[in-house]
Sequence to fold (636 residues):
Amino acid sequence: MGPSSDTARVLASGETAHRTREFFLGEGVPETGTENLLVNIGPSHPAMHGIVRIVTELDGERVVKADVEIGYLHRAFEKECEIGPYNAAMPYTDRLNYVSPLINNFGFCGAVETLLGIEPTERCQYIRVIMSEISRICDHLTCVGASAMELGAFTVFLYMIKAREFLWEVVESVTGARLTISYGRVGGLKADLPPDFEAQMRRAFAETRTVLAESHKLLTGNRIFVDRMKGVGVLSRDEAIAYAVTGPLLRAAGVPFDVRRATPYLVYDRLDFEIPIGEAGDNYDRYLVRMAEMEQSMRIAEQALAQLPGGPINVDHEGRPFTAPAEYVDRGKLGKTERLLITDIRLSPNLAGQGRRQHVQVNAPDKRAVLPPKEATYGSIEGLMNHFMLIMDGFGIRPPAGEVYFPVEGANGELGFYVVSDGSDRPYRVRCRPPCLPPMAALHRMLEGGMVADIVPSFGSVNMIGGELDR
Amino acid sequence: MTPADLLARLAELAGSALRDGQVRLGHATALAERTALADLLRVCRDDAALRFDMLMDLTAVDYLTYPGREQAPRFEVVYHLYSVSHNHRLRVKVEVDEDDPVVPSAVPLWPIANWFEREVWDMFGIRFAGHPDLRRLLLYEEFVGHPLRKDYPVNRRQPLVGPRN
Fold:
C-alpha cells in the first residue's frame, strides 16, 4: 500500500468528501455555520498597478473588512533629501509621482524659493504652469485609461496611452527625458523651451482632444462601464474631508477645493479655468471629473502659452547682434576675457536651451540660488566664483533658518512640501505631503460593504502612485 | 481671516494652551502646550470662526542637531490644518521631550490622523496616546530604530526578513 492509495482512502471517506464539498460551495465548516474567508490581494497582483497589499475579509463575495498595507516602495526620500544640497533633491522629487514628475519638481522649488524669498521670472512661472498642466493631463490619462482597462475596455487604454505618448514627446523635447526629468531648479529651470514648442504642444493637444472625444463616446454612456462605476466606491463629502482627501476624489464628492484657486501660486490667478465637481463621490463621478479636468488643463496651458512673455534678447553691450562666437572662445582660452561675458558661446548639444540668452529668461537674477550661465562660468572669474560658491560642499544654496509649507495642486490632490532650514546648505528636514496617502487611508471605507470585483475599479479610481505614497 | 486674526482668535479661545503664536512667510504658526494639545486641536476644529475641518498633514521634526536648540526639547510634532469652509491654514506645533515622547492622538478628531500618526511613530518613534492601532506604516515590524531621527545613520543595514503571515 503506497501513499497514493492512502490519500484515495481519505478522500473516499464520507467526512472529507463532505468537507471538500463544503469548501467548494463556500458553505463553511458544518458545525459553525459560515465563516469569513481571509484573502490577500497583492502586494504583487496583475490587477493592481502599484505594489500594495489589501488583506480582505470576505463573506461570500462581499468585502467585510479591508486592511490596506503600504510601504513596499519606501525609498527613504525624506532622509535622502537631508544629506545633499537643495538642488540635489530634485531627482528624488521626480520619483515621487512618476507620472507627473514636473509638478513635484516645481512644488519643491516653490518651497525653497519661498524660504529664500526669491521669485522666479515671469517667463519661468508661465513655463512651470504649462508643464504642470501637461503633466496633469498625462496623469489623468494614465488613471482613466488604466481604470477602463480593468473593466475590459482595452481600446480606451491604448487610445489614452497613445495620447500620453504625444504629450510625453513634448515633455521629452523640453526636458530631455520622459520620466526622470529633473527640470526644475531652485530659482528657475534647467533650460528654456525649445524653439518649436508651440507647434509641438498644439499638435499634442489636438491629438489628446481627439482621443478624449473618442473615449467619451466609448465610455461615458457605455452601459457596462456605467453599471460598474456608478454607486461604487462612494466616499461622501464629510468623510472625504475628515480623511483629508483632496484632488479629483474630493471634487467628485462635490467640494470645489483646488489649490490653484484656493491659494494661487505661480500665475494661476491670471488664468481662467473652471473647477469641475461631481455630486455622488463615486467612481463614475471621479471619472467625469478627471475627464473634465483634462480639458481645463489644456485651456490653462493654451492661455499661458498665449501670455508667455519673451525675455530680453541678447545683444552685445553696443546693441549689435553677436558674430563669430568661436572667436571669443578662442580669445577666452588665451585669458583675454574682455567682452566674453556678453557673448553667445556655442554650447554642447546637451546644454541646449541653457545658454545665457535663455538662461536670463527663465532664471531669477539671484546669485545665492541660481547657477550662472555657462558662458559666464567658462568666460569670467566672477561667473566661475559664483558657480563654485553654489557647487562647493558647505556653500551652495543657503536659505535663512526657518520653515515653510508650500502646497501645489498635484494630479492627485494637494502636494505639499514642508521644508525646514537651519541656515546651512542642506535642508534640515523635507517632508512631502503625498496626495494619494489620504485616499489610500480611506480606501477601506470605499471597499467595505462592496463586492470583491469592485475592489480593482475603486482602487484604480484612487490612482495610487507607489512613488509618492511610500516615498 | 488673516493669519494674525487666526492667532488672535485662537489665543482668545485656547488661553494658556497656546504658548506662542507667530506669522512667518505669510503662514500662522501656533505653538501649543503638550498637556492641552487635544483641547487646542478640538477648538481649532469645532469653533465656527476657525473650523479647521481638514488635517492636511501631520509630521514631526527631530531638532537634535539644529544649531541653537541644544536646550530645547528634541522633537516637534507639526500639524498643518486647513479649513475647507473658510479657506485658511494654520500650523500647530508641539514640543516633545526625548525621555517621554508621547502626544495625545488626534484620531478622534480627524480619522486621517490614524495613518499620519502611524508614520510618525514609524519614522521618529513618537507615540500617540489613545491611538487605536499604532503599527509601523511604511517599514516592517522587524525594522530596528526610527530612521528619520537625526542619530540614525543613513547607511545602516537592517535585517532581511522573509515573508510572514
